Amino acid sequence: MSTTLAPGSRTARTIFAPIAPNYDRWSAWLSMGQDPRWRAEMVAHLDAPPAARVLDVAAGTGMITRLLEKHAFEVISLDLSSEMLGVARSRGATAVLATAEQLPLKSAAFDALTFGYLLRYVADPLDTMRELTRVLRPGGTIGMVEFGRPRGIWRPLWWLYTRLVLPGAAVVAGRGWWKVGRFLGPSIDGFVDRYPDADLIRLWEAAGLVDVRLARPSLGGGLLMWGRRP
């Protein structure tokens, strides 16, 4: 992949490469079991037609890909990390090494598209959303999984968890996880501050999507979104 990466994308590729072999197990454990639940909920409400052709962007090790395959969808997994994508490929995924900002795919080629934990890393979220929308067929749907930030009395507890407990617990997970544990809290905060719910919905609409829906499971610790290309 010869594309020049934005700083955020370089960071993502660097810190996640070492944890690819045990990513699935420890991402579930460190999220207290919530991450797999969010992914499943997003896929369950994707509203894609039977036998849909689906592009899973920022697929990583293929956790969302495998959920989509259980619905008998035809899935292509795309990620910028060869290490993460290698795990997905070893589990049977049809894999493409590329960035979300420049998809090497034809316009209107997919019935649906999913992505997880992506927009925090790209240089321009609106441009990226427009690129993702480009490869959707008219009427096609898109779904997203991302971290949120709890509100009210839960927010201080969330801060303590992401700044103290998570980095400490990540040490147990092994090589590379400590960096991820230290990175996630500030990264999530920065994105939530920049894109409150209303602004995030407007961003999706500016990218050409309609019927945009947003849900915040797990007391707001998760962020799920869906939209449709008209």
Overview of this structure, please?
This protein has a single domain (7-24, 32-148, 196-228), classed as Vaccinia Virus protein VP39 (Rossmann fold, 3-Layer(aba) Sandwich), CATH 3.40.50.150. Helix 5 links the parallel strand 2 (74-79) and strand 3. With 230 residues, it is α/β, with parallel strands linked by helices. It starts with 6 loop residues before the first helix and ends with a strand. A seven-stranded mixed beta sheet has the order 3-2-1-4-5-7-6, with helices on both faces. The protein contains nine helices and seven strands. The longest helix is centred in the C-terminal third of the chain and has 20 residues, at 154-173.
Summarize the structure.
The protein is of the alpha/beta class and 230 residues long.
